[in-house]
From TrEMBL:
<feature type="active site" description="Proton donor">
    <location>
        <position position="54"/>
    </location>
</feature>
<comment type="similarity">
    <text>Belongs to the cytidine and deoxycytidylate deaminase family. ADAT2 subfamily.</text>
</comment>
<dbReference type="InterPro" id="IPR028883">
    <property type="entry name" value="tRNA_aden_deaminase"/>
</dbReference>
<dbReference type="InterPro" id="IPR002125">
    <property type="entry name" value="CMP_dCMP_dom"/>
</dbReference>
<keyword id="KW-0378">Hydrolase</keyword>
<dbReference type="GO" id="GO:0002100">
    <property type="term" value="P:tRNA wobble adenosine to inosine editing"/>
</dbReference>
<feature type="binding site">
    <location>
        <position position="52"/>
    </location>
    <ligand>
        <name>Zn(2+)</name>
    </ligand>
</feature>
<keyword id="KW-0819">tRNA processing</keyword>
<dbReference type="GO" id="GO:0008270">
    <property type="term" value="F:zinc ion binding"/>
</dbReference>
<dbReference type="InterPro" id="IPR016192">
    <property type="entry name" value="APOBEC/CMP_deaminase_Zn-bd"/>
</dbReference>
<protein>
    <recommendedName>
        <fullName>tRNA-specific adenosine deaminase</fullName>
        <ecNumber>3.5.4.33</ecNumber>
    </recommendedName>
</protein>
<dbReference type="GO" id="GO:0052717">
    <property type="term" value="F:tRNA-specific adenosine-34 deaminase activity"/>
</dbReference>
<dbReference type="Pfam" id="PF00383">
    <property type="entry name" value="dCMP_cyt_deam_1"/>
</dbReference>
<feature type="domain" description="CMP/dCMP-type deaminase">
    <location>
        <begin position="1"/>
        <end position="112"/>
    </location>
</feature>
<dbReference type="InterPro" id="IPR016193">
    <property type="entry name" value="Cytidine_deaminase-like"/>
</dbReference>
<comment type="subunit">
    <text>Homodimer.</text>
</comment>
<keyword id="KW-0479">Metal-binding</keyword>
């Protein structure tokens, strides 16, 4: 199992969001080669602006492990985390973040470098199945505008 395998699992979660008329972002947390939690956007369903895929996946992972930190875990998320999610990821001390496509409007990139919102030990990588993630987002917003 590799980054593409786990990103495909995050895309399954994003499709669930899409099918429920939520912004299609999905996430999985992996530890030791095993998915320990999953999440997808549920902002509309829960009437909660914080119910992002990353937050739901993190909360589930904390509960599963009985821990508030994830230094050995990897989060796979289909779209670049927003600043709120980046803050939660910072406090989780997650070891690695892999995201699919960038988010020019709301992504964390606005504060990269020395002002990065992620923990200094967190490795951040992106571009894994980026086109698949981007296509799902474009399809969702095209449907909304149509």
């Amino acid at each position: 199992m590799d980054d593409e395998f786990f990103m495909r699992q995050a895309l399954v979660q994003a499709q669930r969001a899409f099918d429920e008329d939520e912004v299609p972002v999905g996430a999985v947390v992996v530890l030791g080669g095993k998915i320990i939690s999953r999440g997808y956007n549920q902002v509309e369903r829960l009437n909660d602006c914080t119910a992002h895929a990353e937050i739901i996946a993190l909360t589930s992972a904390f509960s599963y492990l009985g821990s508030k930190y994830l230094p050995e875990a990897t989060l796979y998320v289909t779209v670049e985390p927003c600043l709120m999610c980046a803050g939660a990821l910072y406090w989780s001390k997650i070891g690695r973040i892999v995201f699919g496509t960038t988010d020019e409007k709301n992504g964390h990139h606005r504060v990269t470098g020395p002002n990065s919102p992620f923990h200094p030990k967190t490795v951040v990588e992106y571009g894994v199945l980026a086109e698949d993630s981007r296509a799902l987002m474009k399809s969702f917003f095209a449907r909304k505008r149509g």
